[in-house]
Backbone:
């Protein structure tokens, strides 16, 4: 059972992921589970399932926030699955529920979660994810890292 | 950890609850935890906290779906807390995430969750909750019971 | 065009409505349009369409908040239709957007909107709609009326 | 009144906008109003207000989808304002309600709407907005333009 003062970290990325992304997500999930953080994700396959599987191997707690009306397609490794019936609207809840976010690769859905988390003032760590620029600034709003260990350390405030 | 094919049962009711309602909610939570069902609730105090506490005493799994932007006010007995920032809008997610609903007492928020669950075609069991009538029908859309054991049996399809 | 300080009144009720309900909704819509109130509704058929049609005959402004991902099934009489993709979750937005609510008949969806509006502290006027009781109180949370003129007067604070 | 088969175009951008962005948004709004398109926006100040003001000068129809619980801070130029109480979650509804999106400058909130609209498969036109790249592709998911006239033409499918 999760301690009620655990840190919640969202691991976000696509269903359609590369081998490297799946390996990163799984290791991030394991490291979060090991330290007692709660893993938040979109609850489906690919990066989401890999992260939940990683957390489960360490006895960690995970919650998947699903787009559909029921739990069809939910990762079997989740501790709990929340159905929303909101479609892409569930991305708001993934960002909202997390204290920090780790983006692993990702497509447009992941980009929306990154942007929502940044708008909400949350720390966003990137592992091989979107590059975001505006003409009027050189600043990169994401903290870029190359490995799961550093991603988790930074997400947890280290 | 919750089994991925667990039944999800929402226990809904007010923060401001009577002793009888709290006792009922706590026993419902214990019985759900004992059989491995996942408890869904609104995540705050009163009936919600009592149900989560009951589930926790049996090693059960619970998820609270919170109205606010952060986990302030969340029951410490929850396995996981999902923050929505949707205010009353989170009631939709409580109803949506559950396979069946047990209403214990309750005020307008509980009534909204009962109505949403009925609209979604879910089984709703009532313990001392709202009486709902329309002029053109005698049918009561809720299954009324008087004790926690029967409430849980019916919610689980028994 | 709606004046920016208009009152917003939701007219809620079922797609599957009686002749009396449709006539009431249409007259409520006409009276709201005549005084420059903005009509809010669920945007589909039955009571929703009748209210929007009534508003349109008086040059009134209406907004329909749709459950689906697109405007399929939207009343052609709406000034604007907002698509949500939230299914029943859009009921929260109907209640939230209104300053007062007039319920005309209605099924479980209408009941959820009545309950959400009451929870949000809004005035709810009932025309042949749900009877709501709790054992511990005799108070009826709705203001019951028998005709459209009185319903609109009360909804507008008269 | 909007024709029920109008095209809905979201104009998205920040409250805190440059003179150039405000001028672009206002001209986009005017051009949308002139052709009978419905303008969708986030309903507040800056780019949102400028677009609504532009639409109003041409007798156009606009809907603002607000983050808060009431219409405080809403642009006075809107035809209708929908209150959501969803905070940043309202960005999903801005993207969902539109058939096409024109992004004018913008910060993280705008970026989230761009990403959500792309995820939903909608055409997104950019006027001085975010640059989005992934390492594994050179493709720019936005259609970049330099003036309001071209932005509206492309958003309307021209």
Residues:
């Amino acid at each position: 059972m999760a301690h009620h003062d655990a840190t919640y970290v969202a691991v976000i990325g696509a269903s359609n992921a590369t081998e490297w992304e799946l390996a990163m997500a799984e290791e991030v999930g394991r490291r979060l589970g090991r330290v007692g953080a709660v893993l938040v994700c979109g609850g489906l396959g690919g990066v989401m399932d890999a992260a939940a599987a990683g957390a489960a191997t360490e006895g960690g707690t995970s919650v998947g926030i699903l787009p559909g009306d029921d739990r069809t397609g939910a990762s079997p490794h989740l501790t709990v699955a929340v159905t929303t019936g909101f479609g892409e609207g569930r991305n708001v809840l993934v960002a909202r529920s997390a204290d920090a976010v780790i983006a692993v690769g990702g497509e447009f859905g992941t980009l929306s979660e990154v942007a929502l988390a940044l708008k909400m003032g949350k720390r966003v760590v990137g592992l091989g994810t979107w590059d975001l620029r505006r003409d009027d600034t050189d600043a990169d709003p994401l903290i870029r890292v190359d490995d799961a260990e550093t991603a988790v350390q930074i997400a947890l405030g280290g």
Notes: Chain C has five helices and eight strands. The longest helix of chain C spans residues 19-34. Chain C has a mean pLDDT of 94.
